[in-house]
Amino acid sequence: MSDINTIILEVRAGAGGDEASIFAGDLVHMYQKYAQSRGWRFSELDSSRSSLDGFKTFIGRIDGQGAYEALKQESGVHRVQRIPKTEKSGRVHTSTASVAILPQIEPREVDINPSDLEISFFRSSGPGGQNVNKVETAVRILHKPTGVVVASQNERSQTANKENAMSVLRSKLYEAMQQQQAASLGALRKEQIGTMDRSEKIRTWNFPQDRVTDHRIGKKWHNIEKILAGDLDPVVKAFKKESDQG
């Protein structure tokens, strides 16, 4: 899959309430700025925002040469340790957010029966949930056999949103299919480094010590703010070096 240049990015707030949503937002902005630094296209497909400029969920697309190869190791649970903006007593909290990097799958690679889909339309909403469109252009698709639900609301037309939602659905079904095949062989599906299991804590962002630790390859980096500002190259290069040596 090293030649895949279009990926679906999914970030979800985990344990930690508002702080988890803020951290999820930090990760989304980091990937957006990194994509911009590489000259890639970054677009939002669907999101659910929190009240504190964060994301409960975010689904987007990144288009660019080598995008999957560069970012595949980001999949998993990211843990943050810091004093939240909402914390008045100065205590360090631990929160989590999960990241999934899914290759965008061509229609011919996943066979989806139209009768298995339940498609509904609704008005797109902005921060706080208010409707920002008088026309029902947003699309939600339920894949009945698996229960997978996807949505897209950032395009101006129903057709474009439906295409985006179908793209996300294909990627999710492809991932599930790959995991099922791997499980049937008696092993978890593995990439070159680590696994794609989102329940696995892959990285800790420790603000008091200004240190990022990746638990899979045992590497540490300092200057968290710089990394969150989009300087992800040191992490990407460390994984590439590990992969080349492996």
From TrEMBL:
Domain Prokaryotic-type class I peptide chain release factors: 123-139
PROSITE patterns recorded: RF_PROK_I
An example Gene Ontology molecular-function term: translation release factor activity
Family: Belongs to the prokaryotic/mitochondrial release factor family.
Keywords from the UniProt entry: Methylation, Protein biosynthesis
InterPro entries reported for this sequence: PCRF, Pep_chain_release_fac_I, Pep_chain_release_fac_I_sf, Prokaryotic/Mito_RF
The organism's taxonomic lineage, starting at the top: Bacteria, Candidatus Wolfeibacteriota
GO cellular component: cytoplasm
Name this polypeptide is given: Peptide chain release factor 1
Function of the protein: Peptide chain release factor 1 directs the termination of translation in response to the peptide chain termination codons UAG and UAA.
Pfam families referenced in this protein's UniProt entry, alphabetically: PCRF (PF03462), RF-1 (PF00472)
Source organism: Candidatus Wolfebacteria bacterium RIFCSPHIGHO2_01_FULL_48_22
